[in-house]
User: Fold these one by one.
Assistant:
Number 1:
Amino acid sequence: MTTPPDVLDAADPLAAFRDRFVIDDDLVAYLDGNSLGRLPRATVDRLGAFVREEWGSRLIRGWDDAWVDLPVTVGDELGEALLGAAAGRTVIADSTSVNLYKLLHAAIGARPDRDEIVIDATNFPTDRYLVESVAAARGLTVRWLRPDLVDNVTVDALADVLGARTAVVVLSQVDYRSGTLVDLPAVTRLVHEHGAVIVWDLCHSVGVMPIALDSADVDFAVGCTYKYLNSGPGAPAFLYVAERHLSAVTQPIAGWWSASDLFAMSETYEVAPTIRRMLSGTPSVAGIVAVQEGVRLIAEAGVDAIRAKSEALTAYTVELLDDAGLEIVTPREPASRGSHVTVRAPEARRVADAMIERGVVPDFREPDLIRLGLSPLSTSFAEVEAGVRILVDCVGGTRR
Amino acid sequence: MTTPPDVLDAADPLAAFRDRFVIDDDLVAYLDGNSLGRLPRATVDRLGAFVREEWGSRLIRGWDDAWVDLPVTVGDELGEALLGAAAGRTVIADSTSVNLYKLLHAAIGARPDRDEIVIDATNFPTDRYLVESVAAARGLTVRWLRPDLVDNVTVDALADVLGARTAVVVLSQVDYRSGTLVDLPAVTRLVHEHGAVIVWDLCHSVGVMPIALDSADVDFAVGCTYKYLNSGPGAPAFLYVAERHLSAVTQPIAGWWSASDLFAMSETYEVAPTIRRMLSGTPSVAGIVAVQEGVRLIAEAGVDAIRAKSEALTAYTVELLDDAGLEIVTPREPASRGSHVTVRAPEARRVADAMIERGVVPDFREPDLIRLGLSPLSTSFAEVEAGVRILVDCVGGTRR
C-alpha cells in the first residue's frame, strides 16, 4: 500500500516552491517539465520589467549598463550554483546545438594528434547528428557505443572502445529517453586515463542534482535551460570550459562577441582571453534574464534538497507504476536515474494523446515510450498520483 | 532657412506611427534606432500574453500548437513584406553571426571549384572575422576590397577583383559606419557574370527600404531584427536562401531542427528538404514572437512609405548639419545612403558622452564618428532638430 500523496506533500520541505510557479488549474498533472519547465512567477514580473524599463527606457544604454556582461555574469551564477564551476568558465548564449557544435570543434582541437570520437548510439539526436557531421568535416572516425536503452554507459563498456586514437568522448549525463544516470566522475576519469577529453551534455541533469564539473576535472560541458531551469521555450543554453583549456581553446564561429574588445571593431580579429571567446553574435538579453530567474530559484532551494525530492518523486512514481503492472525502462536504483521515469507501452502515442485529453501532459518518444518528467520544485506528489492514475487508465483503455 | 520641424511632422503621413512605440519623455532625442530599435507598444502586450498564456498555460503543448513552425511562418512574413522573397526562403533563428557563418559555408559549398572569397575591408567586424576564419578553415583566400569609408562599393571597383577564382562575395547593403547604400541589383548581376555567388548582409537596410531579393536573383542574405525591426536586444536574426540553391544547400551545424522530422529523432540524420535545413537547435520562441510584431508594424506602414520618410529624415539631418558646418561622411545623394547619417568630429567619444548627458542618444564609432540613426516609424523631425542642435552645441563645447 503506497503512502497517500497528501501525506508525502505535507512532509515535503520544498512543497512551498510550487507556489512560485504559474500552475494552470485546467491541468490535472504536468509531467513534462523535462521538456519545457513551468513558468516561474518571478519570471513574469522580471520579463515585464525588463521589456518596459530596460529595453523600452534604457534602450541602447542598456548595453553599457550590464547587458554586455550578462552572458558571463549569469553564466557564473549558473556555474557556481548548479555546476560546481568557479567563475569565468561558463557562458550563456546560443542554442544547445550551436554550443555543442563549438565544443566539439574545441575538443577536437585539444587533441589534434588523435582521430576518433566516441558517442553512444542512444544519445539525443542533435548530439549524434553533430558528432557525425563535425567528425566528417574534421576527418575523424566516429566510434559508436551501443548500449541497450536501459544500460548505464558503464565504465567497463566504455573502456572497450577507448584507446590511443580516441580524441573526444561525448555523453549525456542523463539519457533523454530512459532517464539512466551515468557516473560522471568515474567516466571522466576513465576518459582521461586514455588521454582523451570529454564533452558532457547536461540537458537532462542540470538543475535536478548536484554536479561538480571542476572537481571531476571535466573538460567541456553544455546544457539547456528550458527544462529544469524553467527559462522558457528556446531560452539560451550554456557551455562550460575547464580553466586549463581556456587559454588555448578555439571555436569556429569567430564573431564580434568573441573578440577581445567588443566595441573596438578593430581591423584584425583578436580573440578574447576569457570565456567570452566561446561567444559569437549578440545573445538574447531577455532569454538570459529568464535564465537568471530560473537559476536563482534553484540556488535558493539548493541542488541537494532538489535531488532528495527528485529521488522521492521518481521512487513514488516507480511504486505506483509497479502497482499497476506497467513496464518501466528507467533504472530501478534511485542513484542510477535522473528525474524522469519512462514507461514502455503498446500504442504509446495513442496513450499519450488520451492522457492529454484528460488533462495530464506526459511526453511521447518514438516508438513506444512515455516519459514522466518530475520537476522537483513544481511537481507535487498529488500531481504524480493523479497523473499515473490516468496513465494507467489510458493504457487499460487501449488494451480493451 | 530650413523648414521648421513641426511643419515637417505635421505633413508626415507616417507621423501617427510614433505613438505605436514606447517613447521615454526623459529623452530629448533617441538617434540610435539603427543599433537598438525602440519598443513597440504591441510587443509589450504580445510578449506579456505569450509568457502568461502560451508558455505559462499551454506549456509543452505550445510546440504542437504553432511554435515549431514559427521560424518559417514568421520568416515568410518577413520575407514577403520586407525582402521581396516568396514563402519558404527565409527563416528566423540564431544570431546574425551564426547565420552568416552558416551562409558562408553554404555559399562556398555552392562553388566548390573556386578558391577566393571577396569582402570589403570596411564591412562590419563579425562579417570580416567570420570570412577570415571560414576561409582559413575551408582553404580559400580572402580578397579584400579597400574602398574609402565614404566610397560606394561601385560596380567598377568590384569588377577589378572578381575573376574565375571568385567563389563568394560578401557585402553589406548599407555600410554600418558611413551609411553608404550599395546598388544591390547591379552588384548581384556583376557577381553572377563572374560565376560567383553573393551573400548580402542586410542588417542596416532591412525594414527601412524596399528590398527585392527574388527579383534581383540574390543567392544568400542575412540580417538582424533588433535595429529597424524593433524586436529587442539579441532578438533572433533571419537568413534567406534563393530557391535554386535550396535543394543542394548545406550548412555545418546539423542539429535536430534541421532534420527532416524534428520529433522522429531517428538514428540517421536526414536533412529537411525545405528551408528548415538551415536551422540547428531550438530558437527563442519569445524572440520570434517579438520579430513578428516588428515585421507587422513595418508591413502595415509599407516599405515604400518608410523609405520616403527615411530619405526626408536623412535630408533634413544633412541640411541641419550643413548649416552648422559639421563634416558629414555619409553620401550626399539620398539614393546613395541608408537611414543613418554619420558625422566626423574631433573628440567624438567625448561629444557623444556629452550628448547623452543632455538626453540625446547617438552612437559613437571608433575613432571619430558619430552616427545619427533615423528610424522612420518612431523618429520625428522635431526629435532630429533637437538632437542635432545639442550635437552642434556639444561639438562647439569641445572646440572651446
Number 2:
Amino acid sequence: MTSLGIGLIGTGYMGKCHALAWNAVAAVFGDVARPRLAVLAEHSQELADRKAQELGFARATGDWRTVVTDPAVDVVSITTPNAFHPEMAIAALEAGKHVWCEKPMATRLPDAERMLAAACASGKVAALGYNYIQNPIIRLIRHLLDDGEIGEVNHVRLEMDEDFMADPEALFYWKSEASSGHGALDDFGVHALSLIRVLFGGVRRVCGQMAKPYADRPVQGGGRRAVETYDIATTLIELETGASGVIALNRSAWGRKGRIFMQLFGSKGTIVYDQERMNEVQLYTVDGLTDRQGFRTILTGPQHPPYDRFIPAPGHGLGFNDLKVIECRELIRRLDGERAHLIEFEDGICIERTVDAIARSAHEGRWVEVEGR
Amino acid sequence: MTSLGIGLIGTGYMGKCHALAWNAVAAVFGDVARPRLAVLAEHSQELADRKAQELGFARATGDWRTVVTDPAVDVVSITTPNAFHPEMAIAALEAGKHVWCEKPMATRLPDAERMLAAACASGKVAALGYNYIQNPIIRLIRHLLDDGEIGEVNHVRLEMDEDFMADPEALFYWKSEASSGHGALDDFGVHALSLIRVLFGGVRRVCGQMAKPYADRPVQGGGRRAVETYDIATTLIELETGASGVIALNRSAWGRKGRIFMQLFGSKGTIVYDQERMNEVQLYTVDGLTDRQGFRTILTGPQHPPYDRFIPAPGHGLGFNDLKVIECRELIRRLDGERAHLIEFEDGICIERTVDAIARSAHEGRWVEVEGR
Amino acid sequence: MTSLGIGLIGTGYMGKCHALAWNAVAAVFGDVARPRLAVLAEHSQELADRKAQELGFARATGDWRTVVTDPAVDVVSITTPNAFHPEMAIAALEAGKHVWCEKPMATRLPDAERMLAAACASGKVAALGYNYIQNPIIRLIRHLLDDGEIGEVNHVRLEMDEDFMADPEALFYWKSEASSGHGALDDFGVHALSLIRVLFGGVRRVCGQMAKPYADRPVQGGGRRAVETYDIATTLIELETGASGVIALNRSAWGRKGRIFMQLFGSKGTIVYDQERMNEVQLYTVDGLTDRQGFRTILTGPQHPPYDRFIPAPGHGLGFNDLKVIECRELIRRLDGERAHLIEFEDGICIERTVDAIARSAHEGRWVEVEGR
Amino acid sequence: MTSLGIGLIGTGYMGKCHALAWNAVAAVFGDVARPRLAVLAEHSQELADRKAQELGFARATGDWRTVVTDPAVDVVSITTPNAFHPEMAIAALEAGKHVWCEKPMATRLPDAERMLAAACASGKVAALGYNYIQNPIIRLIRHLLDDGEIGEVNHVRLEMDEDFMADPEALFYWKSEASSGHGALDDFGVHALSLIRVLFGGVRRVCGQMAKPYADRPVQGGGRRAVETYDIATTLIELETGASGVIALNRSAWGRKGRIFMQLFGSKGTIVYDQERMNEVQLYTVDGLTDRQGFRTILTGPQHPPYDRFIPAPGHGLGFNDLKVIECRELIRRLDGERAHLIEFEDGICIERTVDAIARSAHEGRWVEVEGR
C-alpha cells in the first residue's frame, strides 16, 4: 500500500465532500494507506489557506494550475462549477495525473468528448463523481438482478424530484438561463441515467418532453423575466436490453427533497427504491405460498458491503456523505488495477450523449436514437 | 322520494356489486327511497332464478330483452362483458330506460359513439361505472384543487399497475388476443383517464409507447402462441390546462395488486394518492415554518363526505365495494335532477377517444392530438 | 338452507351496520338463504317506522319486548347502549331466540356473568359483535401462527389509539363520568383483548396503570368539572402461553383515528399489523439469504378468505363495514352447527374478567391474576 | 481556536467512530481548530501501531495509562468494553484530562457513582457517548416541544428493538451471562432513557417486567445452558412531569435492526419517530381545516441544524456515524464553556439509577421510585 498524494480544486460542498472522503477512507476501510492531502486550490490564496486548515491539506494555492503540475500530487479531485471541468480535467490528465471529476463532465457535449479523448490519450484513470450509484443498496440491486431474483427486467420507471425550483416567486437566477443547460434534464437527469447505466447499460431510443411550470420569474429590482430552462423533463425510453420505460424529472416538485424513485419490473419480481429512504429497498418475488407474498423492505446492514466497514450493526443507516467515501475506495481500487464499481469517462460520455438525445427528441417531438451509447 | 324500479343484466362480479349497491343505498344514506329490485337477467333462466334469490331481485329471466322493456323497470344496470354493452345500452335507452353501464363503453370507438348518440336521442340518463372516482379521497382532492391548496397544477403523473398478467408462463387466454383490445391501455387505462377527467378535464395531446413484456405464452395442450396485446403502455400527455405529465400502465407488474399512484404537482404544493391505500391521501403545502413542512397523510373520516354515511368514526376505512354504493347514490341524485359526481356518456366518450389517440400515437411513434376531447 | 327471521333492537350506527350485514350476507356469500328482516324496534313507533323503511325491515315497533317474543324472529340483533344489553339479551334468550349482541357484554361484570348464565340455560347461540377479529388479515395471522411461520410467540405488544377524547377543551360529557366505566380500558380495550383472545387464548396476569391526561374539562354553561375516567390505560401482561407483553390504550391520542397496532414477536419471525391500514399485514421470517430479508407487506386478496366473496381481485380493499357481513356469515355458520370464528358469551366473559383485573391492578398498583380466564 | 490534543483508548467500532469524528469535525463544521490526534492505545503495541496509521494518530501505545498522562493530550476518548470505563475514566480525570466515555458509564451502579465523584472532584468535562440524542431530528423534537407545538405531553411510549439475540439456536455467549448485566434493559435500554432524559428530564416511578424468550441456548461443543439475562424488558413509567408511559425493549425482536420507536402524545398534537428512518419525523398538530389534518412526515434538511454543516440540500440523509461528529462538536462547544447538547456524568448517573430501579421493580413485582433522578 503506497500512499496517494491528493490535490483538490474547489472547496464548495463537493470539495468538502471529497476532502471528507480522502480523510476518512483509510479509517473506514482499514485496508488502504492513508492518503497524503498534499495541496488544495481556491480562487484566492487567503480562502485556500483557510480551507487547507479546515480540510487537513498540507499546502494551499490560489492558482489551480499549480495543483495539476505538483509532483506530490497523484490524483486531482475536481469539484469546481461544471463549466470549468473540461479545462481542468484535460490539464490534469495531460500533466499525468489521475482525475476524479464531479458529474456531469461538461456543460456542452463536444467538451465532454474532448475530455474523453484526453483521458484515452493519457492512459490515466479518469473517474466521475456519481454518488448515488455507490449506495450499498444499489449494489444489492445489481446482485439481485445478476442472481435473476426478479427474472428478466422488462420495464423500468425512474423518477427524480426535488423542490429547489418549485417556488414560482423565487427570484430569477442562473439556473433559469439557457446558458446553464436544458434544466432538470442535465441538472440532475444525469443521476437517474447513472443508475440506469450501472444497472442496465445503454439506452437505445428516447422520446422526451420538457416543460416549464412557470413562464417567468421575478427579477431582483422589479419586473419579471422569461424562464429559459425546463424544470420538468419526462422521457419515454427503450433500453439496449429491449426493456421499455420512462424517466421523469422535476426540480419544481414541492415536498420532494431528494427523491429518486426507481421501479424495476421483471418476469419474476419487482424492485422498488426511494433515495429519500436510502437505507431501504423493496423486493417482491414470486416465492412460496401465494397468501403470504408481498413487498419486502430490506434494511441495509453488514450483509450489504461495504456497509460493514462503516457500522457493524444493521439498520443503523449510512448517510449521503458516506457514499463519497465508498466512491473514494472504489477509485483507489481502480488505481490499484482492480475491477471497480465506478463511472469513468467512457461511461460518462454515454450518459451525456443520452441527455443530448433526450433534449433533441423533446425539441423535435419525436423518437431519437442515442448514438455511441 | 319515489322508489326506483331496477333491472340488472349480468350477475358476475360487477353485477353482484351493482346488486349490493342497490340493496344498501337506502340504508347507508337514509335519504332515498329503497329501490325495488324488479328483475334480473342471466343467460339461462335457471342461473337467473338462483341469482335473483341471492341478490334479492323479485323476478328473473333468461332473456335480457325482457328487462329493458319491463314496465316495472326505471333503471337498467348493465354489467355484461364489454362487447355486449352497445347493443344492450342502446336497447335500454330506446326503450326509455335510464342506463347504468359498466366501463368501458365498448370495445370499439364507433360503437361507443353510437351509444352516446342513443343517449342524446333518448333524453335519459346514461351513466358509466367508474368506481375509483367515487372514493371520498378523490372528492377531497378535487376540493383541495378547487380551494387552490396546491396552487395551479403544472405536472401530473399517474401509474396504474396490477400483476394479473405478470406470470410469463401463465397460459395464453383471451386478454392476449388482439380482439380484446390494445391491452393495458384500454383494459385499465380508462380508470386512470377517468381520474384525470374528473380532476382536470380534457387531454390535449399524447405520445404513447406500448410494450409486450413477453413475446409469447404457452398454449393449453402444448406449444406457444405469440402475444398480440400490450401489457404495458406509457404515454406522455399534455392536458387542456397546459399541464404536462405521464401515464404509465402495467398489468404485468409483479407485486402491484390494485395500485393507482397519482402525483399532482402544483405551484404551492403536491398531492399524492395510492389506491392500494385508498383511505389515505398525502398532501404537501408550503405553509408555516420551513423546518416543519412535510407530506401529511390524511386518513378518511366523516369530514370527507359521504364517508360519514357509512361510518361515524374516522380512520375505520371504506372498502372498494362501498364506492359502488356511493356511485349509486350519485346516479339517484342525477335522476332527481341534481348535480352529480358521475361520468356519463358525454364524458365517457372523451375517455375512449383519448385511449384511441394514445394507441395511434404509439403505433405511429409520434404525438397525436385528441379530437373531441 | 332455511331463511332466518331477524329482529333488530336499536338503529344507531351499529344497528345500521347489522342491518347492512343482514341485507348483504346472501348476496356476498351466495351460499346462505336470504334472511327475512322481520321486525325492528326503536324507542318510538315513528322512528321505528322510518328506520324499517330505510333498512328494509318488514315491520316496526316502539317496544323492544315485542321483538324478542315475535314468532317470526329467530335471531335478535342487540345494538342499543351497553347498559341495556343484559336485560334485552337475557329476555331474548329466555324467549328462545338466538342473540347477536354488540360488545361489550355489559357495563358491570356481574351483569355479564348473568348474561352468560342465561345463554347457558337457554341452549341458544349467544354471539358478540367484535368486528376487528373478522378481518381476513386476522385469520391470516392465525393461520401463520398455526403454521409456525414465526415460531413460538414469546412477546406481544398491542396498542389501540384514537383521538375522540384528545381535545382538552372539549366539553365534559358522559364518557368522563365514572358511571360510564373505567375509560379507555373498557371503552375500547375490549377490542384489543378480543384480538388476543382469538390469537392466543387467556391472559394470566396483568399489571395496569391508568392515567388522566386532563384533570378537568369545561362544562356547558361555564366552569369546569373534574374528569372521573381514565383516557389512557397501559398494562403489562403475561399470557397463558407464557408470553410477556404490553397493551397500551389511549383515546386522547391526537392523530390516531382507528389505530390498533399489534406486534407479535416469535422465535422465527415477527408479525406487525395496523388497523388503520386494515388491508395489509407485515411479516418477517428468517428465510433465505440474509442479505434479502425484510418485513414483507402482504395485501389482502382472494387468497385470504372470505375476501374472495367480496372482490375477485387482490389489493382492492375491504372496508370496516364488510367485517360485519363476515361476522354475520360466521354467526349463520354457528347456527348451522358448524365451527365458526366468533366470540360467544363464553369467551366474552373472559375478556370482561380481564378488564376487571386490569382495573383492579391499576388501582392497587400491583400484579393481579385473571380469574376464570 | 486552539487545537485540542486527543487521546483514544480502544479502537473497536466505537473507537473507529470517535476517530472518524475527530478527523472530520473541523472539515464538517468549519468553525473549530483541527484537533491533533496525539496518541492511541490498544492492548498490544503492534495493533496500536497499525490502528494509529489507519485512524491518523501520531503515536501509539500498548499501555492505556500512558495516554491519560500524556501532556499532549487534552481529551481522552474511552471506547473500551464497559467494565473498563470506571478505572480509565477516573484515571484520566485524576490526571486532569477531559473525558469522552462511551455509554453506559459502568456495569455496576456503585462504579458509576464513583465516576461521577471523580468528575466532580476534577472540575473537568466528563461527557458520555449517547449518539442517538445527536440526531438533528431529536433537536427538532425538542424545539417542537419547547414551542408548545403539541401542547403538554401527557403520555409517552418508547420502544427499542433489535434482533441480535433473536435466534434461539445461536450459541450461548457472554450476553446471556448474568455478569453482563440485566439484559436488554441495560444493554440498550439506556439509549431509550437518554432520549427521555434530553426531552423530558427525570423518571419518577417505574414498574418493570423482564422476560426470557428462550430458557436456554446451545453451548459450543454440545449441550445447552440456561440463559441468565433478560432479552426483553418492559416498564410502565411515570415521568417527573407527571406524564405516564411505557418503555418496551426487546433484543430478540426478529426483523427489527435498529428500531427506536417513540410516540409522544400531547394536548395539541403528537410526535412519532422511528430511528430506522432516522432522517424523518412525524408530526400531527391540530391546525387548520379538520378535513386536511394528518401526520406530516418531515425530512431532515438544512433547516435542522447542524444538518446544514454536512449537506446543503434537504432530504439527502445523514448516517449514524455522522451523529458522532455532531457529538464531537458539542463536546468542543462544552469545552469552550458554551451550552452544549450533551449528556454528562451528572445526567448519565440518573439514567443508570433509573435502570437500577427498573430492574429492582421487575424482580420485586411492584412500582419503585427512582432515587436521585
Number 3:
Amino acid sequence: MSDSPWKSSTDRRSEREEKRIAVLRTAARAFNDVGYYNTSLDDIARRLNVTKPTLYYYIKNKEEILFECVRIGLERLESASSEVIGHGGSAYDELVAVMTAYVGVVTMEFGMCVIRVGEEPLTEESRRTLRALKRRIDLKFRSLIERGIAEGSIAACDPKIAAFTLAGALSWVARWYQPDGPQTADAIARHSVDLLLNGLRPRG
Amino acid sequence: MSDSPWKSSTDRRSEREEKRIAVLRTAARAFNDVGYYNTSLDDIARRLNVTKPTLYYYIKNKEEILFECVRIGLERLESASSEVIGHGGSAYDELVAVMTAYVGVVTMEFGMCVIRVGEEPLTEESRRTLRALKRRIDLKFRSLIERGIAEGSIAACDPKIAAFTLAGALSWVARWYQPDGPQTADAIARHSVDLLLNGLRPRG
C-alpha cells in the first residue's frame, strides 16, 4: 500500500485488464444478440458509453474481439471440466458434473459466443488455435465416457458419437436460452442432463 | 408428347426448376464448407462452370439463395416428421423415426445449411418466416413427447427442454459430420438416437 495519489503500475495494469474484459463482455453480448456481422465497433462503443478511439486502447479490431471472446469461452468450458475431473469419483459422476458446468458456461456471454458465433469469421490461423481448444474439450468428454464404459458406470456406446451428441445437446442450449426467460440456466441444465443420463425410454 | 424439336413450356419450366435447385445445392455446399460471408456469387458460378449473369436467371441475389436453402432444409425437416407421424404407432416409435430422419436431413446440403449458416444474415422479414417454420418442427417434437409421456411410452420429462435437447443433439451432427468421414450418416443416426433413447446410465 502506498499513500501516493497516483496508481501503481500494477493497479493500472489490473484496471486496464478489467476494462478490457468489460469491452469483450459487451461485445460478446452484442454478437450474441444480433450477430457478429450486424455489430460494428460503433455499436460496441455506444453500449459502453465510450468513443470508438477509447475502444482501440483495449483492442485492435473486431476480429481480435471475437477471437478473445471465443477463446475465453472455450477456456471456461475447459476449466469447467478440469475442475471436476480426477477427484476420485466415478466417470459417471464426473461426467454429470462436467455436463452441468458446461450448460452454466454456454449460458454466459463468452460461452454463448462460442456457440452462436464461433470461429468462422476469423483467419485460418485463429481458427486453428480455437479448433485445437475445442478438440481438447471434446477429448475430455470422450475419455470420461471411455473410462465410464470400462468401469461399468456408463452404458456401452460409441464414445466419439456419444461425446458429440452430449456436447451438441448441451451447446444447443446457448441457441435458445433467454437470460430473462421463464427457466433458469440451472433448471435447464438439470432437466437436459437428466434426459441425457436416463434417456427417453421409460426405466424398469 | 409432341414431335416438335422445341421444348414445351412445361418442359422448359421443369428444366429451369431443376437448374435452379442445382444452383441452390451448389451454393448450400459452398456456404457449409467455407461460410456464407466467405462465399461470393462468383464462387458459386465458378463451382457450376457458368458465368455470374447466368446465375441471375435463376436467383436474385445471395440473400435469396440463403433464404431458399434454409427454407428447403426446414421443409425437408418438417416433412421428414410429417411422413412418420400419425400412422398409429406409439409416440415413442414415431419419435425414433422422426429423430432418425432428422439426422438424415441435416447431413444433406440444405438441412446442413439450416444448422451451419441459419437465418442470421437475412432480413428481419425473412428471419420471421424461417423462425415460424422452425417453430412448427419444434412443436412436433414437443407434442410427440407429450403424447408419449401421457401414454407411458416415453419417460416423464419436461417436454419443452426435452424437445430442445433432442433437436440440439441431432442438429449438432451437421456441425461435425464429414460426408467423406469414417462413419456414414446412418451409423451416426443409429448411435446418436440410441444414446438419446437409452441414456448414459447403464440399464438394469
